[in-house]
Design a protein that fits this description.
This protein has 17 helices and no strands. By secondary structure, the protein is mostly helical. The protein folds into three domains: 79 residues, Tetratricopeptide repeat domain (Serine Threonine Protein Phosphatase 5, Tetratricopeptide repeat); 119 residues, Serine Threonine Protein Phosphatase 5, Tetratricopeptide repeat (Alpha Horseshoe), CATH 1.25.40; 103 residues, Tetratricopeptide repeat domain (Serine Threonine Protein Phosphatase 5, Tetratricopeptide repeat), CATH 1.25.40.
């Protein structure tokens, strides 16, 4: 039975990797029941942690926290410090998405302390990267740079080319935030070259997306389109539906800048279909709002109202209170225009 449970868990991980979250959850649930029946606490914690990961990726952050904390409790109980550190790191990531940056930073620091204590270099690199991200958000660019560079040294020392590429990419993001676009592009190109070298297709798609996004911000839409279309092609080739959805959405933004509303709507609608299939509610909500914005700009207020009502339903169902308040305000504005 133990082998069966491990296989179910591994299959769940494969489904998660390709964005089929419902199927991933089904396999995790089956694995969890067997692990609990066997009294296998370590693997029970792994399954619970994986549950948290699914809910994390699909924007159900309170559910993610619930399962991560269950996993954390077991991992502390049985003394699996390496795994405990990983769960602490993931809880920090959830609080980052929830915009509770002080809590996120505390969990990351707890994780880093544990990683250092047991000499887990790979996890140190990951968590330093995350602390760098929080520091960047606080506009503490010096600390962010120090964290990224320390993490990069560790990744290079370990020969972890994939993490090295991630950190180069993040240094690109840091410099983009500092408006040093030339340096940002240089880091992105280094990351892209490394990812091409190791044939890391998901990473290539991500970096191409970032370069395209930067060119979009710079108003160089022809270059932006080239990079984004290549990112989209890779995402579709490898079946990375989440990346495909994100790239379609930024292509929609690009076409809006070019005043090509039909193409923008097509991209947003294709992205929206994928978001619904994946259960990615945050991106679903964003795409619905983007479509609504275009119809407002086109003065097609009845169509805009239809989409904002869909957005309101999603926001209420998922408990996104801040989004709900904003959407209600927009709906009221549209109704006022329709009544005049």
């Amino acid at each position: 039975m133990s082998g069966q449970a491990s296989s179910l868990n591994n299959i769940g991980c494969v489904y998660r990797e390709i964005g089929q979250y419902t199927k991933a959850l089904e396999h995790y649930k089956k694995a969890l029941k067997i692990f609990q029946k066997l009294g296998d606490r370590a693997n029970e914690a792994t399954a619970l942690h994986n549950f948290g990961g699914i809910y994390d990726q699909t924007g159900k952050y309170q559910e993610a926290l619930k399962y991560y904390h269950q996993a954390l409790s077991i991992r502390r109980e049985i003394g699996t410090q390496k795994s405990e550190g990983i769960t602490l790191n993931n809880i920090g990531a959830v609080y980052t998405f929830l915009e509770d940056l002080p809590k996120a930073l505390q969990y990351y620091k707890d994780a880093l302390s544990l990683h250092r204590e047991i000499g887990d270099l790979a996890s140190q690199s990951t968590t330093l990267n995350n602390i760098g991200h929080i520091s960047f958000r606080y506009r503490d660019y010096t600390t962010a740079l120090e964290c990224y560079q320390e993490a990069l040294v560790i990744a290079s020392k370990m020969g972890d080319r994939n993490t090295e590429a991630t950190l180069l990419s993040n240094l690109g993001l840091l410099n983009a935030g500092l408006k040093d676009f030339e340096k940002a592009l240089n880091y992105y190109e280094l990351a892209l070259a490394l990812r091409r070298e190791i044939n890391a297709l998901p990473g290539q798609a991500e970096t191409l997306y970032l370069i395209g996004d930067l060119y979009c911000d710079l108003g160089n839409y022809s270059k932006a389109q080239n990079y984004l279309q290549e990112a989209l092609a890779i995402s579709q080739k490898i079946g990375d539906r989440l990346s495909e959805s994100d790239t379609l959405s930024i292509l929609g933004l690009m076409y809006r800048h070019l005043k090509e509303d039909d193409k923008a709507l097509k991209c947003y609608q294709e992205s929206l279909v994928i978001c619904k299939q994946l259960g990615n509610h945050i991106s679903e909500l964003q795409n619905i709002e983007y479509i609504g914005e275009i119809f407002i700009e086109l003065k097609q207020h009845s169509k805009a109202l239809k989409y904002y009502q869909q957005a309101l339903a999603v926001a209420r169902e998922q408990g996104y209170q801040n989004n709900e308040d904003k959407i209600i305000e927009i709906i009221n504005q549209i109704n006022n225009r329709l009544s005049t």
